[in-house]
Amino acid sequence: METAFDLFFASLRGKEVAVLGLGVSNRPLVRLLLSFGCRVTGCDRTPRGKLDPEILELEKLGCTLSVGDGYLENIHVELVFRTPGMHPGNPALESLRRQGAQITSEMEVFFEVCPCTILAVTGSDGKTTTTTLIAEMLKAEGKTVHLGGNIGTPLLPLTKQMRPEDYAVVELSSFQLMDMRRSPHVAVVTNLAPNHLDVHKDMEEYIEAKKNIFRFQKPGDRLVVNGDNAITNAFSGNGETVRFSRMGSADARIRLENGVIFRDTQPVLEAKEILLPGDHNVENYMAAIGAVEGLVSDETIRKVAGTFGGVEHRIELVRVKDGVRYYNDSIASSPSRTIAGLRSFSRKVLLIAGGYDKHIPYDVLGPEICTHVKKLYLNGATAGQIRRAVENCPEYRGTPEMVDCGDFDSAVKAAARDAEPGDIVLMSPASAAFDQFKNFMVRGDHYKKMIMEM
Questions:
Q1: Which terminal Cβ of the chain has fewer Cβ within 10 Å, N or C?
Q2: 400 upstream amide cis, omega within 30 of 0
Q3: pLDDT digits (tens, 9 = 90+) for 11-27
């Protein structure tokens, strides 16, 4: 019996298809399209002289490359797979639409052809940890789980091996959601705060993109939202809407009372059983509990809480050296993420912050730094904005001391030099990595390497 996957790709045989962006996540897609007899053009702004050998291997397999300056010029195709980082309103995409090209994405096609139940997570903060928690809970219950999306693994090429009884657990960014016309069976929105305003034209567009995770749900589907966040609390799905609240919202089905997470009147998990530090991780567990209701036992949830040590680059303990604890929180690319990281510790930290400017406000970070930071080491394009946020807050009285270090390496070295036994050094930039690194993972790996070589 032919599957939706087979039918979709068989319909593309012989067609001209462009794949925009030849990063690691899109390369399996190119191979998949070639295997079904498509005439594929791979488009990437990277000059030919700097292409990875793997991309040149795609050319040998039959992919036509359009790279470097003008990589989107003179493209004439029937179907375009948009890279998530490219705004759907990009002039080059609009031009392709006028020529008659259909614009889609790897994730949109995956939602169309996936044969199993999809649980998806989005939000400004906590996406990856919540997505991973849901997958860990389902796996611990004995279910077959396919984890991917914005979390790193492209799922479309894996669809062929998925069975109806499996579960796909997907992290979705606002960029992936912008032109989605399908929603998952279970949708989770962890929270919303200003983010990615360097790409989105305004906050309204950002919120509207996030709404696509539940906009196309059907009766019987489920939406899980944060009842403590003013934006997400206003969301309501076409099926069941479940709210969770750490702050005691009256209409929340999942709530924290006296250190215990309840689902309705049933106690599920004591917060102290959660291995991950911080109130934000209590919220991540509450979101995951809402998502897996009816699929995972409370006993399994408690087992995961006591054993799951977290996701790389998210308040990750790197090393204890000379009595100093070094943490890697490179995922913190916004003020709200860094605030969550700062609140995870019971003592003041030496904070390394700053990076690429996403044109988001930093005012909310100032008071938190004054409360939770012993000394601040600034670097990157947002250093000045973070400094002003601290200096402008009423709590600032000359402390913490702020050091302008220029670049990332200098900030890490300065913090390590100043740290004393008992101190905590936290790299939580409140900014994206793109001014000095390819992405937050490269930044985190670089930090860990520096710390381990001390």
A1: N
A2: yes
A3: 999 999 999 999 888 99
